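Write out this protein's structure.
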Amino acid sequence: MDPVRPPTVWVDGRCYRVASPPTTTSTTNYAEADTYGYEESVYQDEVDCAAEQEDFTVEQISNGRFQTSFHVANSYIPYLIGGKGSTKNRIERETFTTLKFPGKGQEGDIVVMGRDVRTVRQARIKLEMLVEQARKRQNPTHFISIPANTPAIQEKFLEFKKEVLEKCGDSRGVEESIFQEPIKLHLTLCVLALADERERQQALDALKSCSEMLRRQLGEEKLRLEMKGIEIMNDDPGEVDVLYGRVNALSWSHSLQTIADSLVGELMKTGLVTRSKERVKLHVTLMNSSFRQQGDDSGEDVTPKARESFCAKNILKCGDGVDLDGSTNAPETFCAIKIFKEFGDYEFGVFDVEEVHLSILHTATSTKYYTATGKISTLPEKPS
């Protein structure tokens, strides 16, 4: 770990430094869980600062002590207890508090009790930070999506696919299976790992609370987007895993980047979203090497192949060692250069954004868009 740039963790919209990334062993037994380990995993000054600033209730109970309670999905509780209670005991010892957890298989809140408000707050912050570290290691279950699958966009995408296969089908790794299904075309704003029904409802409530914010940003106009041009996720067009379509708002008064960043920022306040980058990467995935599959023509017994990148030099029309001004450069310099001639400015069309979805991963098919836990409208309200 680089001591100058330690890992960070987001808790309720605030970013904290992490001194040593913990390790994990999966388990479902509270008493015997090997956890991410506490081991001074957060800086004490960060905990002290957060304990003073976090907005949660600490109440005084009848015996004169103080307590706070909060919900944590059952799947995270083993990481907070630790093997033979090691993590629980350590936090209790360091903060002079008592931690109570719901029994295995039972629903309930974690309760933190202590002799004063400050130590109770410290203990809760440490628990929340450990939960956030555990959440980062979970497989995502949901994502916030903007569908980009209007009939016109799907038709243009199929034309793009046909032309790429005709003109670039001899490029390494370029085959039909790595193209997106037209019905699945979308922008992903962020991903979430929602561990139980309460977290799913919390995420949905947060998304619904963004509806008014979006309408204020858009005013009386529709959010109209143009999908034009292609780009790759990395700098080497010879080793590509994801090729995507660029998307921008048509109206000069709207910034799609600002809208997307604002929406994700609101969701981060729930603690259910961890932002890995400062800005949302605006893209519609068109080709992805992870889609590559092998099987018979009927689609039966299809099994995933090992991920293999593809060469997009012909798609991007990149000339080996040729800079934008025509000068020659070493291959490593060229890796960051993309000269678009054939498909660089491909026009996929214009579409109106009508909804933002809380989509469930892996629920789409070749004929059906992703199932939504919930959605919000972005259309202007009609006068009553």
